[in-house]
């Protein structure tokens, strides 16, 4: 992760550095141009001020006074007549002044003055010219000169300040990028370590995720994945343990009674008894394998549901007729009530499997002489199917778990409890595959009601009792 931190840091630095250098360069050029323009304007304004004084008092004393003023300043002055002949000038400026004055076209100088030398990079002086007009007639010119060394010094100072500011800016940028790249990569490092643990089968991953950005969402997704994998691992272990237990018991019976049945001294009557037990255990294993196969297909999404329009009342009448003899054998009553003209789209074979399982449970856990009710009715836009019995009921603590695989209310898993512990799990999967839902309500020693909700329906009542 140090590599990605370094890459991110370098990438950020290159972009930020490029932006900073562009901004610094633009700012530097703008400031230099502004400062140089300011120097030219200042020099021209100084010349225009002298021109104004001379236009009011054009005499020898005033001319000498102007020259004397400039001798105390950083600028120099030269005053000419209307033809460009130099009359008065500052010390040491005469050769420079004469060269530039001779090159100047006097007719091109406006009354507001003009910069006649602006090459501050290569020349020793910059210069301006301002015409002296008395009574509407040009009587001379005021030439102002300033050494370019002062401008160079000013620009060098400005450059020095910019270099210091740039170095500080780059340093602060590096520090800021260092902490920002660490702030970004530290969560990524934690996520990498978490995924490494997950890949090794350690699902006890806990990520402290804060915020709502993409990194936080990724962290939450990894945390959720870890919890889901941990849950699946636990479920798988429990599932395998349950299968092992469910298969071990009948296999123990089969092996034990087979050993006994093989004894040559065993009487035929006892041999038949033991062979009968072996057959029952083999049937139990066959049912268990069948249920496991059904659940495996559901988990792999290869479980096919082929829906077709089905009149529910006719469907339940067939279920009633099929189950009625079993209830009669146990001296129990089966009652169903169905609203007429209710048609739903279901897989009849699969849904018959649901009803047979639920009715078989009601028959198994109810007392002789009790009644099991099937009630089919419309509730708004849904069809409600309720299977109610008057049996032993389900404890409140067990009720939320009865649709889990291999869960049994009978914790001893006694053989008399019957079933594989997979029936209700299969029922739930089939009902949900139809777009419906199933839940249970129960009271101990008073009975249990299984409630299935499916889309669609109509009304009217039809009763058959036994």
UniProtKB/TrEMBL annotation:
Q: Which residue ranges run through the membrane? A: 162-184
Among the GO molecular function terms of this UniProt record, one is: phosphorelay sensor kinase activity
Q: Which domain of life is it from?
A: Bacteria
Give the reaction(s) catalysed.
Answer: ATP + protein L-histidine = ADP + protein N-phospho-L-histidine
GO BP field: cellular response to phosphate starvation
GO CC entries: plasma membrane
The main location is membrane
What is the E.C. number? 2.7.13.3
Protein name, UniProt field: histidine kinase
Instruction: Specify the taxonomic lineage.
Output: Bacteria, Bacillati, Bacillota, Bacilli, Bacillales
């Amino acid at each position: 992760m140090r590599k990605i931190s370094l890459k991110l840091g370098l990438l950020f630095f290159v972009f930020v550095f490029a932006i900073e250098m562009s901004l610094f360069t633009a700012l530097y050029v703008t400031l230099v141009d502004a400062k140089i323009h300011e120097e030219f304007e200042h020099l021209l304004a100084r010349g225009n001020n002298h021109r104004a004084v001379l236009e009011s008092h054009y005499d020898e004393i005033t001319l000498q006074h102007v020259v004397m003023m400039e001798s105390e300043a950083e600028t120099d002055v030269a005053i000419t007549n209307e033809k460009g002949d130099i009359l008065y000038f500052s010390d040491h400026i005469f050769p420079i002044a004469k060269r530039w004055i001779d090159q100047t076209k006097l007719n091109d100088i406006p009354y507001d003055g003009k910069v006649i030398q602006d090459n501050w990079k290569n020349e020793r002086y910059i210069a301006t010219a301002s015409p002296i007009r008395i009574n509407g007639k040009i009587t001379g010119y005021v030439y102002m000169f300033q050494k370019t060394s002062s401008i160079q010094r000013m620009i060098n100072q400005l450059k020095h300040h910019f270099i210091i500011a740039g170095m500080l800016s780059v340093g602060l940028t590096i520090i800021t990028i260092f902490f920002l790249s660490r702030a970004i990569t530290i969560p990524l490092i934690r996520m990498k370590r978490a995924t490494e643990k997950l890949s090794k089968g350690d699902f006890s991953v806990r990520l402290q995720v804060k915020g709502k950005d993409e990194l936080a969402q990724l962290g939450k997704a990894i945390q959720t994945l870890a919890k889901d994998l941990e849950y699946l691992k636990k479920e798988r272990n429990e599932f395998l343990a349950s299968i092992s237990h469910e298969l071990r018991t009948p296999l123990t019976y089969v092996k034990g009674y087979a050993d006994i049945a093989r004894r040559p001294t065993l009487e035929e009557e006892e041999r038949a008894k033991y062979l009968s037990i072996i057959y029952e255990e083999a049937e139990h294993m066959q049912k268990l394998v069948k249920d496991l196969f059904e659940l495996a297909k559901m988990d792999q999404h290869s479980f096919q549901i082929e829906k077709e329009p089905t009149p529910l009342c006719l469907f339940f009448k067939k279920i009633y007729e099929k189950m009625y003899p079993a209830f009669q054998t146990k001296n129990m009553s089966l009652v169903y009530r169905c609203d007429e003209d209710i048609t739903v789209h279901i897989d009849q074979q699969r849904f018959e499997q649901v009803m047979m399982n639920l009715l078989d449970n009601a028959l198994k856990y109810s007392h002789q002489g009790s009644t099991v009710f099937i009630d089919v009715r419309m509730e708004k836009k849904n069809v409600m199917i309720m299977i109610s019995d008057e049996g032993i009921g389900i404890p409140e603590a067990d009720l939320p778990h009865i649709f889990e695989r291999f869960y049994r209310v009978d914790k001893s898993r006694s053989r008399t409890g019957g079933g594989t512990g997979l029936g209700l799990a299969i029922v739930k999967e089939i009902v949900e595959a139809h777009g419906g839902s199933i839940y249970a309500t129960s009271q101990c020693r008073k009975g249990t009601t299984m409630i299935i909700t499916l889309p669609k329906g109509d009304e009217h009542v039809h009763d058959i009792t036994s």
